[in-house]
């Protein structure tokens, strides 16, 4: 990207789930545009991911643990002074028929996808209010717009993210903080591989890649998304061009869901 766009110079962004997939693509995009980047995820691998970017640190943080989330933002502030943008990207999915879905699967999904996003928003807002403003972007999912089969817990967790986004957006609207959510469609990551394997087995006799390929046929643009497609929207929402946008949930899915 060179110096063409340096919208985030002197800005600091926290990206949870930043060690791979969509999160890493988001971190890369902010880094390309000049930001200091704080990557957080459960695995130690996040430290290696951070080394691949300039002005970046990695923090091992389970977003379901409030003390760990507070420590994450403390470390971000200690390294770079302030947090200007926080992207709640950490997420998990499992796939199970309704009778087989366990309580612990339900609880874990809610804990990471919904409570984890909330804890990060809470901590970020506390600091952004003191710093005069900020930008929060939460990862929901097309599955919150239009439930997919065998993932009621995931759909509920992401629908929760959308509701939380609207409520927080209203609360902080006068604090120069915007809160928005996005709904990715079918994006090629590890999550895609898991979905292809497990849903493929449950929905029929699909070989590797066949189920996802058939779903991609249903995308008007006839291609799967990539992390960078999602990162572009997030960078826009974090930029000054989006100053008057808050409480919104925007799809990034090649036209898969048009509502
Ligand atoms: P991946 O499975 O590739 O990555 C998930 C990331 O979340 C990993 O970095 C993982 O860290 C992190 N994570 C999981 N649990 C925790 C936790 N408790 N605390 C901190 N970090 C955690 O997923 P994607 O990149 O595909 O998805 C990113 C986001 O986008 C998720 O919220 C997902 O629900 C959403 N999404 C994805 C879609 C897709 O098609 N891929 C579609 C719609 C939404 P670690 O590796 O250390 O465990």
From TrEMBL:
Domain of life: Bacteria
Alphabetical GO biological process terms: fatty acid elongation
Family matches, as InterPro entries: KR_dom, NAD(P)-bd_dom_sf, Sc_DH/Rdtase_CS, SDR_fam
SUPFAM superfamilies documented for this protein: NAD(P)-binding Rossmann-fold domains (SSF51735)
A Pfam family per the record: adh_short_C2
GO function terms (MF aspect): oxidoreductase activity, acting on the CH-OH group of donors, NAD or NADP as acceptor
Occurrences of domain Ketoreductase (ranges): 11-180
Family, similarity comment: Belongs to the short-chain dehydrogenases/reductases (SDR) family.
PANTHER family: 3-OXOACYL-[ACYL-CARRIER-PROTEIN] REDUCTASE, CHLOROPLASTIC, SHORT-CHAIN DEHYDROGENASES/REDUCTASES FAMILY MEMBER
Designated name of the protein: Probable short chain dehydrogenase protein
Native organism: Sagittula stellata (strain ATCC 700073 / DSM 11524 / E-37)
The organism's taxonomic lineage, starting at the top: Bacteria, Pseudomonadati, Pseudomonadota, Alphaproteobacteria, Rhodobacterales
